[in-house]
Amino acid sequence: MADPAGAGGGGGLGEGGGVKRLLERLDRFWFEPARLTDLAIVRIVVVAMELLLLLSPYLADTVGACVGCSLPYQRWLVTLSGDQYRPLPTMQVLMLPLGRHARPELMFLEAVWLAAVVGGVGALIGRYTRLSLFALAAGSTLLTAHAYSYGERHHPEALLTIMLWTLVLVPSGARLSLDALLFRVRLARATGRFHQRPPEPELSPHARWPLRLMQVMLSLAYFSAGYSKLMNGGLAWLNGYTLAHYIAGDAIVRGSAFGVWLARHMALLRLMSVGALVIELGFWVVLFWPRLVWLGVVAGAGLHVGIYVLQRAPFPQFIALYVVFIDELRRYSPFRRRAAKPAPVWTVVYDGLCPLCIRTMTVLDALDWRHRLAFVDLERDWGRAAALAPGLSAGAARHAMHVVAPDGTVYRGYAAFRRLASVLPLLWPLAPLMALPLADRVGSAVYDGVARNRGRIPCRAETCAV
Coil, strand, or helix at residue 415? Predict the structure, then answer.
């Protein structure tokens, strides 16, 4: 006879194995290593969106996006009667140093707005990234909470604010930032050597969970909107008349002629009602079937664009937050070229015993997002440099930087920098200026003057003679 305890023990092991597999899948979902560059791109897009709302009174007041971040709106709020001020719990916590129910004065709000803007600029360029993100997130939170302490509340800015706070907790400035560039420059200065970036993107388990969190929250926001429609209106919400009521009312108040016209066409409105409900209730599918992410993002963006066209009520934060799907959008892109040929490489020959040259190579490498540049230290690998440019002497190479084009053409000094300006996208704005009639003569003179007066390290351990 089989041992019941043994059978139960086997079942327990099976259940334990199932729990283990579930935990492993959850761990992969939340903490699978992701690209630090993707996290940096999310930082740039989210911060740029928040800065745009802070600095643009038209968007903030007319469009209704992050109305609390608008300085003109804050100035208007302080003119209201004190009886209308009912601080939200968030506002009470933020105002604790001044008194939980204290009402902020205009000078205080202006200082908070200015701190948020300064923090936003710092976070955008990646200087003191974590501190700058904190200033932006805290300032935006206080301004929005203050605006919603007078009875009128909205929801689009909540997700954007949460995303800002999560970016404070992760290394979002590890790439595409001044902090990262200055760290590499300091490392090059300390070691006396240029360290080129690896060709493969650097991954981190800390770069995945902020993106996943916002993906889940976006899905929940959409689902709650669709669920609310069904709970409050039932299937009658799909008859077209409900949508006509909302579209016509907003279109008349906000001046959308197209919305007024569409409000009279019930057949189209019924189709739109069904489409909106399907998008809102089904957006979560992209979490489990990422191959559908392009369909979900395009459908969601179309929904928000349609709302703006018809009702002049946009949700730019939602569209900006689609950047959290960057990894899935890249992986399952229908426009991805499967067998793309490697891009031609431009080789930079530099003096590895020149501190200025080492720092310059570090900056060029940081700007080389597409990995179009290769670097040859003439002091460590003169044989390779001579093979790439047969007519180049070691003395000439030490005097000026040389760039070897993919076709073998060699450019020297200022001409080399001018060619690199056409290769690196971030330097494209300089290319027309460097092509002006007198730019070549002036640029060459300045370059040669700097080259003659720059310092050099006498030698390194592997180059010094015993």
Answer: helix
Distance of CA 251 to the CA centre of its chain: 33
Q: How many other C-beta atoms lie within 10 A of the C-beta of residue 64?
A: 16
Please name which of 126, 124, 177, 189 lies closest in space to residue 361, comparing C-alpha atoms.
189
* DSSP reduced 3-state for 347: strand
Q: Whole-angstrom Cα distance, residue 437 to residue 291?
A: 52
Task: Calculate the CA 390 to chain-centre distance.
Answer: 44
Kindly give, in sequence order, each residue whose CB lies less than 8 Å from that of residue 127, ignoring residues fewer than 6 positions away: 177, 178, 179
**How far, in Å, CA of 457 to CA of 334, rounded?**
51
Q: Are 171 and 156 in contact (CB under 8 A)?
A: no
Euclidean distance between CA atoms 251 and 241, whole angstroms: 15
C-beta separation of 90 from 14 below 8 A: no
Looking only at the bridges linking them, the beta strands covering 346-350 and 373-377 are parallel
Q: How far apart are CA 409 and CA 404, in angstroms?
A: 6
Phi, psi at 34, each rounded to 5°: -125, 170
DSSP 381: -
36-60 burial, b if ≥16 CB within 10 A, otherwise e?
Answer: bbbbbbbbbbbbebbbbbbbbeebb
Q: Per-residue pLDDT for the chain (466 aa), expressed as one digit of tens each?
A: 444 444 444 444 456 678 888 888 888 899 999 999 999 999 999 999 999 888 876 444 444 444 556 788 888 888 888 888 888 888 888 888 888 788 999 999 999 999 999 999 999 999 999 999 999 999 999 998 888 888 776 667 788 999 999 999 999 999 999 999 999 999 888 888 888 888 778 889 899 999 999 999 999 999 998 888 888 877 777 777 777 777 777 667 666 676 677 777 777 878 888 888 889 899 999 999 999 999 999 999 988 888 777 766 667 888 999 999 999 999 998 876 654 566 778 899 988 888 888 888 999 998 888 888 999 988 888 888 888 888 888 888 888 888 998 888 888 888 888 888 888 888 888 888 887 878 778 878 887 787 777 666 655 544 444 3
Residue type, 377: D
Query: What single-letter DSSP state applies at residue 341?
Result: P
CA distance to 256, 265, 374, per residue, from 248 (Å):
9, 11, 60
Compute the 3-state secondary structure of the chain and give helix, strand, coil in percent, each to the nearest 5.
Answer: 70, 5, 25
Q: Long-range contact list for 198-201, CB < 8 A, 24+ apart? A: 199/371, 201/35, 201/36, 201/37
Q: What is the biggest distance separating any 2 CA atoms in the chain, rounded to whole angstroms?
A: 99
Backbone angles phi and psi of 349, in degrees to 5: -100, 120
Q: Distances from the Cα of 293 to the Cαs of 117, 330, 333, 334, 435, in angstroms? A: 33, 10, 9, 11, 44
